[in-house]
TrEMBL record:
Name of encoding gene: myofl
Family, similarity comment: Belongs to the ferlin family.
Protein name: Myoferlin like
Transmembrane feature ranges: 1915-1935, 1975-1993
Top-level division of the source organism's lineage: Eukaryota
Length: 2001
């Protein structure tokens, strides 16, 4: 992604009518994007972000963007009117050296090519190019019932999700790729979030658990990856829920060029418990924690808002407060959570006093807490003030117990503690403090992106951590008691800082005057209006040319001094510990470097032991002697101080004990280096101090009022301590070299702004007198003022001083008087006022030059068409200002004229040197000049020049001048001054100074008293003095004795430099700088490995300071390499530094040694330079002691003298020039007739020309010989340079490619040693018909080639019985065959060297590779005595170099971890092979939806070698509608495989087969003997042994414990094969090659496993190919018979109040969710028992060797192809309660792994949850024996079903089942139906014997009455019947009198078929009470009642029956 930020424009011209409405457009590669239009504005501000998708293609060096600004018109013909355009090159972004351009002003050019305005823009391009790969493997123990888990992975705002699985232990095995392109600092702070959801849940809170960690944590792991780790899932919102399951993942961060780590699966991994492989340390569980961050206050905030209102207040007499123009609040970010404090308006020192609570999981995977201070803005976005980070690893320790660390002895081991911090200030850094209304170009620094260049304030915070806590409020107020406690931590003490500037050199250009500002915190910031002024800056100085290349500030013996007082907390107890540990670490590192150097130099063991023992003794002595400060009496000790003290003491004691044991027990010095390095790293880690509240010291270089460059110096490095000498900073009071740098330097230090030598001392004011022991020389302080005069009518006086004063400051604007100057307190005047011209302001333009050209312009004018006459100002400078006439120029002292005045003709002028112009009012001078005269020209001028040369360096400098002297002159006020008066001068001035000395203080410490007194006067004196002090009249001078030194720099050669020219070479030379002097070497043309052999001599270098101090810490010699260009500016090639060897006594015979020093450019290696330097102290009385002058080469060039230059020896270099390959076109023409030029050590040899490159790219003559003088020491050996020259028509011979071979060690050989490295030429290779054993027919079904493959990789589960049968295996290499160490890259005959052409821009794979050279080298010494015979030649017997036709067989086995190309995270890969011009496309056999396809394909092709040597195997992604995408490719060099002596064209099998070619192995062995130059093999008569290469081999030794079969072949062939396999030849193999993309060549896109066989057709056709067709799954059937259930949960209550369940059982296999089967329903189970006799049948495809089920299905209905899944065979069984009118209720489930089956219980009583692993009470610690159903075939028993209730698993029921595995053949022989359907057999299932109560009430009313109503209410029914009978009896009793009886005969029958008659007799008694009709109804009702009673009796009788 390319991001362009269009910020603003200014200076847009007005239109004729009104202002324009500007709109900006950016065009990139034809794509245009626009901003919005800004109405009526000449200075529009857009601030819009335009993004362009790069579409996977990187930027190249020619990329650019066009910026077009137009006027938006709504009315008129043209909608857009052009204002201006600009073209911006993206070359620097494309090179990768920077990630973004900061805001930049670009001039807009109109149609007339004139500037019309300036546009501001920012371009950013993310620098980190790589991938994050997340593989989700499986989950375990996820909570919930009947869940469907899915994992969502979020990385860098990209989200992927897995497929939905079922169960609590899902298996995913899916990988996701996230391509990232961003800054590493931003990337490492990004979070990786893994969340597990229940997709079945419809609720919003379906999150099961999550885990977060940052990318930086992964990147810091070994290999930048965590492999197959378990993540403990949790809930961030509710920490009381505890663990929410486990998730196994692999996460890796793969950058460009990184090799992704391989993932291995252990066979026994699935049997291990999860806790054994947790990501967190063993024994530590993820616990909920609260990080309490107390934010108290902040201070020193810079101005962030506009001060317009405050300025208005001051205008009207009010008080303007610029200091508090900021509205700060603090934002805290950690682990994706953000909290912020309240906003405090208009306050630069806010007090929040708030508590921020961060709820996290501990230990957390995120390590840094980000604190960002913002300025709140009401209308616009909030601006960042500064950012800092709290690193938890620095404020916590994982050792010991987390809660009770005191239980462990601190002396025995390191203790652990939770994160804790403060109360302490943390400092914020960012962009400069000065406020401007324009956008801040360094705003990114305020967000923590890069090193901050200025102090931005600080915040007082306190941090603590509490475990198992939960807070209600995330933001709360701090109590008053806690606020009062922090007061003691804010006590300030006065600090004094002194900085003495010794030198400032290596300035690139003179420019404006320069001064340096020193600040600590906001003390000393000159340009910040919110800070009080201090004497923190040096005086302005003009840079002086050093005579060669650089500029320097001419301080000479007067060194500027800056003093500064500030107030900070006393944290000496912390910084003392830091400095002591740093001191110990530096001494240890120095000794360790000496030890490593001795090891590399191959010193004898005794010497190594001596150095090693010295290291151990010194380290133990340091650890014992240098104690850390005691914290007992310190007033402001924090908890972290105590913890770090304990931790450091324990660590130091541990290191001492380990060192003691090592000293007693160690036997190998080299083996101990790793442990010593670990100790060094541990000590450096202990030295990190998180609570360092004293800010860094920042030095700024200012040009005028503009900040140019900066340097940051940590305060502890210059801090003085009275605790011990070692507690002082390493640079305290010592001169150090500082290379300043530009803020946010895009070029990463290609150019040095300035090199400083500065001495700094920082200490408490009470220790100021200790400064005397560190200071050198004497301090002097001067008051100064300037006397000003102007020339009026030829006389100098004060009359013409317009706006100036007679006496003023340096600016001339502040009026001063001598009598108003008062010395500061404790100081007094030493002498009277005197004139002292300022040296740096009096320097002329010729300062530092040895040759100079004076110039003046002669001007003439005329009327149009008239004659030329002298102008009013006949002589001016280049700017048209008045200048001296040629006659007024005088030759300065020490110079001599070399020629007279002449006009300059080397310009765009006519023959007379004139150039012409036209004046356009109101200008009085032409703006442009042309060389041709026209009639309308009225002005002309010509440049007159006069060269002069310096003849003497002697100059007279007067220390004191009389009052009439010391003037410096200028043409106008404000112009640069010069020493000599000129006729054009109108203004002059001179400086008056008066010296002050201390009155009551003695020593250098008086300098600190001075500044304190001046600060007091600032408020006591009147306004004038106040202004004077602010104007900087205070100046501190540092006087010290100087010494004269003599420097010699020996520059011998360089190597591996960058190619800066298009011809693939450079023209390098070196600028060598030492302090204020520099010299330059000669230019070496067209080389990347120049040999200068030059000595640069620096005479009479004046260095101030003690020679012993200089010897201990000498200034570095700085070398800057440049490429000389005849056109254009010379380009920098890199820089290196070299410390000189200081010799205070030149007579001492100590010779410097040439060493290689790295050359760096933009932070990267850019070559090496071989050099040395020595600095000699000159004694005027002993000039003869200086070393002899080195021998000369030419008039002014000195060579490196003998004794320093390398010792050489005559050496022979044999060059095997085999041929050229893949040569690209040059200048649009193909390379047709090339030859090779070989250069080394000044010797050159060239091959013959290849006549026809297309037909035969090999050279006619293959061997060349060079005799060259090479250094004996390998480190000094020059490289071999290869140049390919193409011979073209008309004699043109351009260089079309070059290569540099640096290391020659690998090509050195012993010429008299037997040559065993001859190649296996094509005619020597005897090809077998088939090199691989063929299996027996009866074994083909049991084993196949894949069994052999899996047996070779060690996968015993998939290889089946292959290994048991004793068959052959093959070698599976984890890398390319060329990367296997024992085969030497297959370059034993000839290597491949890449030829390059053009300018190299990057260190990665260079796109300028234009071809390859095939060849090799043999290097050996030649005898010095001519009488000794020359050694034999090395390249003697060579194969034929002509083309030969070959048959190629490519076997593609499988691919691993391919890059996904489809939106579903998958790929549809297929193979495409290219060989020469032939292409094989296997698109029809693509593998759908997989990242790990098994191809098992063989391809056969023919080709000619070497023309078609490159075999390209590509993997493409199949797409139906769109274009197929390339996943990756790999290229194999077939020529190397054919020519290699390792016989890599066809691997050797383990055993011989009778089908092999007769005498095949013997022929191969004979050819090996021939090419190695040894006798042919000799066989014994019985073929039991043979002799080869002087060694005897016996067949019995090879086949001692093996059984000999007839198919193994004859003994001779078997023995020959055994001998061949012992010769290191390539065996039968499979190689693993990395697939790479052409867009990202160094980033793996997956891997491919394959091998290639090469068969020359001249030897006949080979045998049939090997069959590697992939395995096909077999059909199996799982028959699960559900017999019974028991103890099932009774989930429902009937209408009669009984607990019951309607039980049924459901089952399925993973991946076959569509084929779920369930039994019938056992209704009304009142005791939890169920009877079913039901059969489940699941048919599936199974790979027995891999023990995986193969499932194929479409993921979505719109998918074209089925996706193949390989899932472990499992069976899920669930018990459910059936509900007809609602959802069924889930009662329990069990998950059965068919490969590791849970052993069933024989009886239901023995069946419990303890049988399930992971359940409470289970024996999960004991690994169960593998119990595979595939081996048992059938098993029957009881299994428990579990259900989760209230977070716990309870028993949901027990199931009795029979599980049976049936193969496809058995399915036909023993058929069975589902359920109880036909064919109901094997076994036959009878209907279940269920109780009568098992029925559905709705369809069985009678059974309902019997089993529900009767059984529940039978006694009620019986009592009711009895009551009715009694009532009936009493009723009949009333009818005792028969009057007129009414008889009703009711007949009913019972079981006995008896008839009864009931007679109803109406009694007269009733007649009395009832009427006739009433009696009738009474009788009828009584009859109905009787009938009902009879029916009830009948039904009851039936029930009883």
């Amino acid at each position: 992604m390319l991001r362009v930020i269009v910020e603003s424009a200014f200076g847009i011209p007005k239109k004729k009518l009104g202002n324009p409405d500007p709109i900006a457009a950016v065009v990139f590669k034809g794509e245009k994007k626009k901003t919005k239009a800004i109405d009526n504005d000449l200075n529009p501000v857009w601030n819009e972000v335009l993004e362009f998708d790069l579409k996977g293609f990187p930027l190249d060096a020619s990329s650019f963007i066009d910026v077009v600004v137009k006027d938006y018109e709504t009315i008129g013909k043209d909608k857009y009117v052009l204002i201006g355009t600009a073209k911006i090159s993206l070359k620097d972004l494309a090179s990768g050296h920077m990630s973004s351009f900061p805001s930049k002003n670009v001039p807009l050019i109109n149609e007339k090519q004139q500037p019309t305005g300036v546009n501001t823009w920012t371009v950013s391009f993310f620098a980190f190019d790589g991938q994050i790969r997340v593989r989700v493997i499986e989950g375990r123990q996820l909570p919930g019932n009947n869940i469907k888990p899915v994992v969502k992975v979020n990385v860098c705002e990209q989200t992927h999700r897995t497929r939905i699985r079922r169960g609590n232990n899902p298996y995913f095995d899916e990988m996701f790729y996230y391509n990232v392109n961003m800054l590493p600092s931003e990337l490492f702070d990004e979070n990786i979030s893994l969340r597990v959801y229940d997709s079945f849940s419809l609720r919003a809170d379906s999150l099961i658990g999550e885990f977060k960690l940052d990318v930086g944590y992964i990147y810091e792991e070994p290999g930048h990856a965590i492999m197959r780790k378990w993540l403990l899932l949790g809930d961030t919102d509710d920490s009381n829920l505890g663990a929410r399951g486990y998730l196994k993942v692999s996460i890796m961060v793969v950058g460009t060029g990184d090799e992704p780590p391989t993932e291995r699966r252990d066979v026994s991994e699935e049997l291990d418990d999860i806790e054994g492989n947790l990501l967190v340390p063993a024994g530590v569980t993820m616990r909920s924690a609260v990080i309490n961050l107390k934010v108290y206050r902040a201070e020193d905030m810079p101005q962030m808002d506009d001060a317009f209102v405050q300025s208005v207040k001051q205008v009207f007499g009010g008080e303007g407060d610029r200091k508090n123009l900021v509205d700060p609040y603090l934002e805290v970010s950690f682990a994706g959570k953000k909290l912020r404090t309240k906003i405090v308006e208009k306050n630069a020192n806010p007090e929040w006093n708030q508590l921020l609570n961060l709820q996290v999981k501990f230990p957390s995977m995120c390590e840094r807490i980000k604190l960002t201070l913002y300025d709140w803005d009401r209308l616009t976005r909030d601006d960042a003030i500064g950012t800092t980070f709290l690193n938890l690893s620095n404020m916590s320790s994982s050792g010991g117990e987390i809660e009770d660390f005191l239980s462990m002895s601190a002396a025995a081991s390191e203790v652990g503690f939770l994160p804790v911090f403060g109360p302490c200030y943390v400092n914020l850094y960012g962009s400069p403090r000065e406020y401007t209304g324009l956008p801040d170009p360094y705003e990114d620094l305020n967000f923590g992106k890069g090193e901050g260049v200025a102090y931005r304030g600080r915040v007082l915070v306190e941090l603590s951590t509490q475990l198992d806590e939960k807070v209600d409020k995330t933001v709360d107020d701090i109590s008053n008691d806690d606020i009062l406690v922090t007061q003691k931590y804010q006590r300030r003490r006065k600090y004094s800082l002194c900085a003495v500037f010794h030198s400032a050199c290596m300035l690139q250009e003179p420019g404006e005057p320069i001064q340096f500002e020193v600040s600590i915190g906001n003390y000393g910031n000159k340009l910040d209006s919110t800070c009080k002024p201090l004497a923190s800056t040096t005086q302005y100085s003009f840079a002086v040319f050093d005579g060669n290349h650089y500029y320097y500030l001419p301080w000479a013996d007067t060194k500027p001094v800056v003093i500064l007082t500030s107030y900070w907390e006393d944290i000496s107890h912390r910084l003392d510990s830091v400095n002591v540990l740093h001191f110990i670490a530096e001494r240890l590192e120095s000794h360790l470097t000496s030890l490593k150097t001795a090891i590399l130099a191959k010193e004898p063991e005794t010497r190594l032991a001596e150095i090693w023992l010295k290291l151990i003794n010194h380290m133990m002595e340091d650890l014992n002697s240098f104690k850390l400060p005691n914290l007992a009496n310190q007033p402001n000790i924090t908890v972290l101080d105590l913890q770090l003290k304990t931790l450091r003491d324990a660590a130091v004691e541990s290191i001492k004990q380990m060192a003691g044991r090592m000293r007693e027990e160690a036997t190998d010095v080299k083996a101990t280096v790793g442990d010593i390095e670990d100790w060094l790293e541990r000590i450096k880690q202990l030295a990190e101090e998180p609570q360092s509240s004293v800010p860094d010291v920042i030095i700024w270089m200012l040009r005028g009022e503009k900040r140019v460059a900066y340097a940051r110096v940590p305060a502890n490095q210059i801090l003085y301590s009275n605790f011990s000498e070692q507690a002082c900073g390493k640079h305290c009071g010592k001169t150090q070299t500082i290379f300043m740098q530009y803020p946010m330097d895009k070029n990463k230090g290609v150019k040095i702004p300035v090199q400083l030598r500065v001495n700094m001392w920082l200490g408490l004011s009470v220790h100021e007198k200790k400064f005397n022991s560190f200071s050198e020389g004497n301090f002097s302080v001067y008051a100064e003022m300037y006397e000003n005069q102007a020339q009026v009518f030829g006389k100098w006086g004060t009359t013409g001083l317009v706006g100036r004063h007679k006496f003023s400051d340096v600016t001339g604007k502040v009026k001063l008087k001598q009598e108003r100057f008062l010395p500061p307190r404790s100081w007094e005047w030493d002498q009277d006022w005197f004139v002292d011209p300022e040296r740096c302001l009096l320097t002329e333009a010729d300062a530092g030059h040895t040759e100079f050209t004076d110039e003046v312009f002669q001007n003439e004018t005329r009327f149009p068409g008239g004659e030329w006459k002298p102008a009013a100002e006949p002589y001016t400078d280049v700017n048209g200002e008045k200048a001296q006439s040629p006659g007024e120029f005088e030759c300065p002292s020490g110079w001599a004229w070399e020629d007279d005045w002449t006009f300059d003709s080397n310009r765009a002028v006519d023959e007379g040197g004139w150039e012409y112009g036209v004046t356009i009012p109101p200008d009085d001078k032409p703006k442009s000049w042309v060389a041709a005269e026209k009639m309308y020209h009225i002005h002309r001028r010509r440049r007159l020049i006069k060269p002069r040369r310096k003849i003497s360096d002697k100059t007279a400098v007067a220390e004191r001048r009389e009052p009439g002297e010391g003037w410096e002159y200028s043409s106008l006020i404000g112009w640069k001054f010069h020493r000599k008066e000129r006729s054009s001068d109108t203004f002059r001035r001179r400086r008056w100074r008066r010296k002050m000395i201390p009155s009551d203080c003695i020593g250098a410490s008086a300098i600190f008293k001075l500044e304190g007194a001046l600060l007091a006067q600032l408020f006591l004196c009147d306004k004038v003095v106040s202004v004077m002090i602010q104007s900087g009249i205070l100046m501190d001078d540092f006087h010290s004795g100087s010494y004269i030194y003599h420097l010699r720099v020996y520059i011998y050669q360089a190597r591996n430099l960058c190619a800066m020219d298009k011809d693939s070479f450079s023209d390098p030379y070196v600028h060598v700088s030492f302090l204020h002097m520099s010299k330059t070497t000669e230019v070496v043309r067209t080389t990347l490995n120049p040999t200068w052999d030059q000595t640069l001599i620096f005479e009479d270098i004046e260095i101030y300071g003690d020679p012993q101090t200089v010897a201990h810490n000498p200034p570095d010699v700085v070398l800057e390499l440049y490429d000389s260009d005849q056109v254009g500016k010379d380009e920098p090639m890199g820089r290196c530094t070299c410390p000189p060897l200081v010799k205070l006594n030149p007579g001492v015979d100590v010779t410097p040694k040439l060493l290689w020093f790295p050359v760096t450019k933009k932070g990267r290696g850019a070559g090496e330079a071989l050099l040395a330097a020595e600095l000699l102290l000159k004694d005027k009385s002993k000039d003869g002691d200086m070393p002899l002058v080195p021998p000369r080469r030419g008039e002014k060039l000195y060579m490196v003298p003998q004794g320093i230059r390398p010792v050489v020896q005559l050496t022979a270099i044999e060059v095997l020039t085999w041929g050229l390959r893949n040569m690209k076109s040059y200048q649009l023409a193909t390379v047709s007739s090339p030859s090779l030029v070989v250069e080394c050590g000044g010797e050159v040899v060239q091959t013959a020309v290849i006549k026809n490159f297309k037909k035969n790219p090999n050279f006619p003559g293959s061997v060349l010989l060079l005799k060259v003088l090479l250094p004996k020491e390998e480190m000094y050996t020059p490289p071999i340079v290869l140049k390919v020259v193409d011979h073209r028509p008309f004699g043109r011979k351009p260089v079309v490619g070059q290569c540099t071979i640096d290391c020659l060690e690998e090509f050195r050989c012993d010429p008299y040693r037997l040559n065993n490295e001859a190649c296996m030429s094509a005619r020597d290779v005897v090809i077998d018909i088939e090199d691989r054993p063929i299996m027996k027919t009866e074994e083909e079904e049991a084993v196949d080639w894949w069994s052999k493959f899996y047996a070779s990789v060690g996968d015993q589960e998939k290889c089946g019985p292959y290994l048991k049968k004793g068959y052959d295996t093959l070698q599976v290499y984890a890398s390319e065959l060329e990367e296997v160490q024992e085969f030497h890259g297959l370059t034993d005959f000839c290597s491949t060297f890449k030829l390059q052409r053009g300018k190299s821009e990057d260190e990665e794979d260079d796109p300028s590779v234009v071809g390859e050279f095939k060849g090799s080298f043999k290097i050996y010494p030649l005898p010095d005595d001519p009488g000794i015979p020359v050694p034999p030649r090395q390249f003697r017997e060579l194969p034929e170099s002509g083309p030969q036709e070959c048959l190629i067989r490519i076997y593609v086995v499988r691919c691993i971890d391919l890059q996904p190309k489809d939106t579903n995270g998958m790929c549809d890969p297929y193979i495409k092979i290219t060989l020469g011009r032939k292409t094989l496309d296997d698109r029809d056999n693509y593998k759908a939806n997989t990242l790990n396809p098994e191809f098992g394909r063989m391809f056969e092709m023919s080709c000619f070698l070497p023309q078609d040597k490159d075999l390209k195997i590509s993997v493409y992604d199949y797409d139906l509608l769109s274009r197929d995408e390339k996943v990756g490719e790999t290229v194999i060099d077939l020529e190397n495989r054919l020519l290699s002596r390792f016989r890599s064209c066809c691997g050797l099998p383990q055993t011989y087969c009778v089908l092999l070619k007769p005498n095949g192995c013997r022929s191969i062995l004979q050819n090996v003997a021939r090419v190695r130059g040894v006798p042919p093999p000799h066989f014994e008569a019985d073929a039991s042994s043979l002799t080869f290469s002087g060694k005897q081999y016996n067949l019995q030794d090879f086949e001692r414990n093996t059984v000999t079969h007839a198919h193994l072949g004859p003994p001779r062939e078997r023995l020959a094969l055994h001998v061949l396999r012992s010769q290191g030849l390539v065996p039968e193999h499979v190689e693993t090659r990395t697939l790479c993309s052409s867009h990202q060549p160094n980033l793996s896109q997956g891997r491919i496993q394959m091998w290639v066989d090469v068969f020359p057709k001249s030897l006949g056709l080979p045998g049939p190919p090997c069959d590697i067709t992939p395995r096909k799954a077999k059909k199996y059937s799982l028959r699960a018979i559900i017999w019974n259930t028991t103890d099932v949960i009774l989930d429902e209550r009937s209408i009669t109040g009984e607990n019951m369940s309607d039980i049924y059982v459901k089952g399925w296999m993973p991946g076959m969710e569509d084929d779920k089967q369930k039994t019938d329903v056992h209704y009304r189970s009142l005791d939890g028992d169920g009877n079913f006799n039901w059969r489940f049948i699941f048919e599936f495809d199974y790979l027995p060797a891999e023990q995986l089920c193969v499932m194929s299905r479409k993921e979505h209905f719109w998918n074209l192809d089925k996706t193949e899944f390989r899932i472990p065979p499992k069976l899920f069984v669930q018990i459910w309660d059936n509900d007809k009118f609602s959802l069924d209720d889930y009662l329990g489930s069990v998950e059965l792994d068919l490969l590791n089956l849970i052993p069933p219980a024989k009886t239901p009583e023995k069946c419990s949850l303890k049988m399930i692993p992971g359940m409470p009470g289970s024996t999960s610690s004991k690994k169960p024996q593998p119990n595979s159903l595939f081996s048992q075939k059938s098993v029957r028993g009881w299994w428990p079903c579990a259900i989760e209730k209230d977070g716990k698993h309870v028993l949901g029921g027990k199931v009795e089942m029979t599980l049976e595995i049936v193969e496809e053949k058995e399915m036909e022989e023993r058929p069975a139906g589902k359920g109880r359907d036909e064919p109901n057999m094997n076994p036959k299932l009878d209907p279940p014997n269920r109780p009568d109560t098992s029925f559905f009430w709705f369809t069985n009313p009678c059974k309902t009455m019997k089993f529900i109503v009767w059984r529940r209410f039978k006694w009620i029914f019986i009592l009711g019947v009895v009551f009715l009978l009694i009532a009936l009896f009493l009723g009949i009793l009333f009818y005792s009198l028969p009057v007129r009886p009414l008889t009703v005969n009711l007949c009913f029958s019972i079981s006995e078929k008896k008839k009864y008659t009931i007679t109803l007799i109406r009694k007269h008694v009733l007649k009395i009470f009832l009427s006739q009709s009433q009696l009738f109804f009474f009788n009828f009702a009584l009859s109905v009642l009787l009938v009902s009673l009879v029916y009830l009796m009948q039904t009851t009788a039936f029930m009883f029956k």
